[in-house]
Amino acid sequence: MTRTTAAFAAMTSTLLATGCLQDAPPPDHTAVFTGSAGAWVDLSHAFGPSTIYWPTDTAGFQLTELAYGQTEGGYFYASYSFASAEHGGTHLDAPIHFAEGRMTADEIPLSSLITTASVVDVSAAAGADPDYQLAVEDLTAWEAEHGELADGTALLVRTGWSSRWGDRTAYLGTDLTGPEAVPELHFPGIGPEAAQWLVDNRNVAAVGLDTPSIDYGQSTDFRAHVILYSANIVGFENLTNLDRLPPTGAGIVALPMKIEGGSGGPLRVVGWVGG
Amino acid sequence: MTRTTAAFAAMTSTLLATGCLQDAPPPDHTAVFTGSAGAWVDLSHAFGPSTIYWPTDTAGFQLTELAYGQTEGGYFYASYSFASAEHGGTHLDAPIHFAEGRMTADEIPLSSLITTASVVDVSAAAGADPDYQLAVEDLTAWEAEHGELADGTALLVRTGWSSRWGDRTAYLGTDLTGPEAVPELHFPGIGPEAAQWLVDNRNVAAVGLDTPSIDYGQSTDFRAHVILYSANIVGFENLTNLDRLPPTGAGIVALPMKIEGGSGGPLRVVGWVGG
Fold it and tell me: Chain B neighbours among A 192-231 (CB < 8 Å)?
């Protein structure tokens, strides 16, 4: 064996041992589920006595004890029933909520609920102005840094509002309840122009944000709702922990209660952050 | 340049181009979320008028229309409220349901809800005997073929019962309602000996099955519930589409409504199948 042949043989041996002369094995994506390839983050508030609902909904979340304690059968047993409006707490807006003939809660494909997350942070602007609306410029500035919003992604708008969740007045902008509260609502949202730009120029599957509503508190015509939901884009409201997701590269699994014909419903939603 | 040197240079160039002279990049697990590396399967039944509840629960799922149609504001608007027992349809059993002091629905860590799926198929035995109970032998036979149940996995028991979901009498084993229905319940479940074996010998995070209850229909002492939930193992009931998951290698994301202090609640649950 010449020195050259021996060198080739040694290199070939190394390459075979490292797998570089074979097709690489497919990556083991089950690492996502064992937690060994990243972390899961809960983006959901809990439902309870302090869960925030629209101010015209004064019933809120209602939990009724059916059983709690030892039974005659010798075992412990606890059970409750509950009642709620679809659109309180961390919840889904199905497109039919504001767009006739569009998808109901049970009709939304899993591909619109399980996708990548694209997080736009407008918390500085919203912190300075509680009536702030996400603008086209926020989206184009984000794209200049992170690339075009991917087809099918969930656009998550971080306003910083979730830090106010424990303070209903700070979160909604008013301590009133009932119809007289509505003109006094102040919280940020997605501007109608940005909503129209998304529908005309991009192909997002969902939008979500950490405020009570896709439209800002002062909206009276709910244009962002109408524009986005008419395009069968779904909405996630009252999210939390958006500060724990990177601008790109995260995943989202948003699983609403599967209500037949529902216009929305309670949503449990988690983000996956690799690394 | 000699021929040998040229050959080395060409090979080096190829290896650099293919990444084989560098550390392999980490796998891109976001393929799980784009759907490019596998498929998501909905393991949940919907909530509606035909959703099956325990026969003593005659109210079932209640949906109330709050609004449906054009508004004075010029936009379409649909909205509902709903009410339900925690333990109907596809739902979570939090450990406290049958074990005092154990986890409530909102306390369950995401690691018990998002994990690998291990699917044991007892549909042949259950098809022959509606009172069939998963036995220790079913678990040891499964392990002989697929390896030991992984720490933290969700053990999903496929009985085949989900194909009966549209026929309440076939699903529950009786067409009665109220207390007199309970002694007439017939459907398969997890045997107490198998439950105890799991607690003593393995470290599963969750159990789930495609019937109304972890314990079989004829149970009067709910031993499997008590044994498993005392160990803070969580339960998923009334699952569907378990036939679409392989015995091993699948992932599960089971996201219950996050009810503060809840003993369970509506569950939207999906499986991920690679390939």
Answer: 220-222, 225-226
